[in-house]
Write a structure and sequence with these properties.
This protein is 63% helix and 3% strand. With 501 residues, the chain is mainly α. The protein folds into two domains: 131 residues; 333 residues, Neurolysin, domain 3 (Orthogonal Bundle). The N and C termini lie far apart (63 Å). The structure holds zinc ion (ZN).
Amino acid sequence: MQEKLNELKMRLAEIADLSHASAVLSWDQQTYMPPGGAAARGQQMSTLRRIAHEKFTDDAIGKLLEDLSSYADSLPYDSDDASLIRVTKRDYEKSRKVPASLVAEIAQASAQAFQSWQKAKPANQFADFAPFLQKNLDLRKRVADCLGWTDRIYDPLLDQFEPEMTTAQVEAMFAGVRKEIVPLGHAIAEKANAVDDKFLHQKFEDAKQWALGVEAVKLMGYSFERGRQDRAPHPFTTTFARDDVRITTRVLPKFFNAAFFATMHEGGHALYNLGTPPEFERTPLAGGASLGVHESQSRMWENLIGRSRAFWKFYMPHAKKVFPRQLQGVGAEKMYRAVNRVQPSLIRVEADEVTYNLHIMLRFEMENALLEDRVAVNDLPDAWNAKMREYLGVTPPNDTQGVLQDIHWSYGTFGYFPTYALGNFLAAQLMEKIRADIPDLDARIERGDLKTLLEWLRAHIHVHGRKFTMNELAHKITGESLQTRSFVAYLKNKFGEIYGV
Ligand code: ZN
């Protein structure tokens, strides 16, 4: 049995190498590559991905998994070997269900749709993008049919990003949260002037913003021996190995928040992958449990820590040393309130913690409506704008700031958006347990001790890699599946106090 397990691991290690090599190419494409390299880079990446896909869907892998299944059954569910076999089998079965020809068709269609979106967005021409979106949608419907579904066509698509989470579960959670945060948002809107963040919108020197962000991620425990930070238009984190996890950021010259909190956010993603146990290296168990669990880590560092009172009590003197003129007369309390200003806005990535999830709910509903033919692609802008009015009380003046704002649908990615909100919910649920385990967490943060939190995350979350689904992990750590009670309580508590509502 050991021999078969070794052979499986050897094959999986090669596949991991190929996908990490492809990640290097993609990182370079988004950071340093000159525009002239685009066409060749596309071919190189697609070749590497094709070889990795062929190797992974090879009959030999299926045979090994079959031969190892009784061995896996004889082990505890959470043991390394049983988990490796279980998770690989889950990935393998999904990969085998979608024919290579459909994968290739999707790659081509999404490349074309992305090009169209890149032009249609600034030009405010949804009609130009619509046929490509329709094509992406039709292809995803075929993928859903290949993967199989009974209840909702959205289920298999969501499952690709959040294994074993169902559309019905997400719908129920979203409905519960919406009932609470829409009135909270309205109450805050009536006291909009209670928080002043004007001083955050002025010139902050680029190099200094960069340096302050670097100082923050170092404080979080991010090591530049095992990573680096580069510039990218859309910040992301990428992993080449457990000792080489890189982050990117972008600096807006006239707004403090953008670079600082994006850096903490990506730092949170990076710490998760840096916390992968060494024995998972080059196996499918390396990395995070799911997109939602990953987002719970990035959002915890960005919002529950980075936008906390305790953090600014410690960090304000550092920020003032770097920006003495811009932050003159601004104390920790004023900073805390300013970075938490609530403002219903048109753009998801700029949204505050209260309104952010409403942006996600809107996209989730639109995706379901499109896939279930309840809304036609051509009617999407009107449907989008109506929902924006209903949930956020704002109407996009054009499609550039409305339905065309996100990149996801141009890639044909449906089922991804909910993971952002699920990550927010999980972060709050985990934080309740963290506070129970570390009662003096705030006092520690006020002293600049973020290490204790990182150690907790390593021991309870990072150590498991991809072994468990989001609900399994939530259950294991907090004694119950993912719930939204903690998140709603967190929002009401924090913003109720800031705005006096
Ligand atoms: Zn993220």
